Automatic annotation (TrEMBL):
It comes from the Bacteria. This is DNA-binding transcriptional regulator, MarR family. GO terms for molecular function: DNA binding; DNA-binding transcription factor activity. SUPFAM superfamilies: Winged helix' DNA-binding domain (SSF46785). Keywords: DNA-binding, Transcription, Transcription regulation. It holds the Pfam family MarR_2. The keyword DNA-binding applies. Residues 24-159 form the HTH marR-type domain. InterPro entries: HTH_MarR-typ (IPR000835), WH-like_DNA-bd_sf (IPR036388), WH_DNA-bd_sf (IPR036390).
Length: 175
């Protein structure tokens, strides 16, 4: 197996501080490197479609919600794991581009609903195959079995850190 930069770093720490277990660096360091690689690849993919990752996330959440492609700003905030100010900025940009609308809920006039427009659905549906091609390409070095194993391990890691959707968010997102 070919080594990577983390192998060199771990060997250096083993030489310099043999009294410490530096093995977590091998995992966390690689996750950090992968995060950067994923970010760069996604940024390039989304830019080809006039989007960025936060915009794509909002459009995708609305699209996954199914007809009539509506969610509350709170549900979008929870799925994106961002503050209300951050979601407001995202919604402002998407509304300016005509990709979403914000209106008072017909069911509850006090609540606001965010709706994916036809232009937003087209933008998402056009970008999604390219996005998936990018992700497939990044995973090309792993077999289907290895991908499944990696997904399972990452899921366990995130759940152990408390990253599980709350019940209300799951229900709002159709889960």
């Amino acid at each position: 197996m070919t080594g990577d930069a983390m192998d060199t770093i771990l060997a250096q720490w083993a030489r310099e501080r043999p009294d410490l277990d530096c093995s977590p660096m091998g995992i966390i360091g690689r996750i950090s490197q992968l995060q950067r690689e994923v970010h760069l690849a996604q940024r390039a993919t989304f830019a080809r479609h006039g989007l960025d990752a936060p915009s794509f996330d909002v459009l995708a959440a609305l699209r996954r919600a199914g007809e009539p492609y509506q969610l509350t700003p709170t549900a979008l905030m929870r799925t994106a794991l961002v503050t209300s100010g951050a979601i407001t900025q995202r919604l402002d940009r998407l509304e300016e581009k005509g990709l979403i609308t914000r209106e008072r809920s017909e069911a509850d006039g006090r609540a606001v609903v965010v709706t994916l427009t036809e232009a937003g659905r087209t933008a998402l549906d056009t970008a999604l195959p390219d996005h998936l091609d990018t992700e497939h390409g990044m995973l090309a070095g792993l077999s289907a079995e290895e991908r499944e194993q990696l997904a399972d391990l990452l899921r366990r890691f995130l759940v152990a850190l408390g990253r599980v959707p709350d019940r209300e968010t799951s229900e709002q997102l159709g889960g």
